[in-house]
TrEMBL record:
The lineage of its organism: Bacteria, Bacillati, Actinomycetota, Actinomycetes, Micrococcales. InterPro entries: Aldolase_TIM, HMGL, PYR_CT. Belongs to the HMG-CoA lyase family. One of its GO terms (biological process) is ketone body biosynthetic process. GO terms for molecular function: hydroxymethylglutaryl-CoA lyase activity; metal ion binding. It holds the Pfam family HMGL-like. This is Hydroxymethylglutaryl-CoA lyase. Gene3D superfamilies: Aldolase class I. The keyword Membrane does not apply. It comes from the Bacteria.
Amino acid sequence: TLPAEITIYEVGARDGLQNEKAVVPADVKAQFIRQLAAAGLGTIETTSFVNPQWVPQLADAAEVLELLGDEGRGPRRPVLVPNERGMDRALEAGVGAIAIFGSATETFARKNLNRTVDESIEMFRPVVARAREAGMWVRAYVSMCFGDPWEGPVPVEQVVDVSQRLMDLGCDQLSLGDTIGVATSGHVNRLLDALGDKGIGDEVIGVHFHDTYGQALSNTLVALRHGVTVVDSSTGGLGGCPYAKSATGNLATEDLVWAMEGAGVRTGVDLEKLLSTSLWMTQHLGRPSPSAVVRALGTA
Ligand code: HMG
Ligand code: MG
């Protein structure tokens, strides 16, 4: 059975815009986030305080938060923070929630964080400690939970090990990243079972599927049936990681809301408002949304 209600963790403004060729101006980003909130999305990842040379698309993080004022802060407006320099910037901007982002594989840790897995965990340790001290909510992502473009399929035990080490830093939530979209339903169940066996239960887990193989929604349904209630998605299906070969957009929020409406699962999101926001953003980006639901509803 499916839960009565889910929490959508919207990543379009971060995962979506970090991967666009066009750099979206800060005021358009702020407007995007305001409209997402107005469409009923409660949790919105707003931006990243990463090295701006690594992700120039989000170099304007402080400016976006400044433009948003109180609307961009609080426990349900997380930002990505990889290291202490990022934490300094996040504190200065007054954020109330952060996300660290580890990797299940060595190759991607190197490519995305310029560190080994061990080194990256040590990099996160003081970040999480400072966040807790400041009373922030903390999420931990694990990337390459199912497969890695360089290393191939990733063993479940390896993902569980990194997940445990990240959660042991003192995080509130774990998001399972299928960075390149290769997960399938049986694999999702096996990973959730293995995490549960080690005490990381569905109640602290979010799922983060990219839609490269068109499996993001079916994988999400499997996770919801397992007991997960937090789902990451991006409006319009924007997204991807610039440091992961073959990563495409996330599960589109519209696809998720459409499916949940049909199943009688509450999301709090107004699909029409969301759709007009998404069409407005794709105009800015100069390319159509990859989401089938957006295409179907958007031309009706
Ligand atoms: P590094 O180059 O090794 O950093 O990057 P460093 O510590 O050697 O510092 C080099 C210079 O960068 C220094 O400046 C630092 O101050 C500066 P200098 O002294 O030379 O003048 N610097 C910074 N400046 C501003 N803000 C900062 C910062 N950090 C260093 N935070 C680092 C290491 C981890 C910072 C880098 O690799 C990085 O920023 N990586 C992030 C890449 C990224 O954002 N990827 C996308 C997000 S992850 C994702 O999309 C996956 C996810 O969606 C889940 C999934 O799908 O799986 C979450
Ligand atoms: Mg992602």
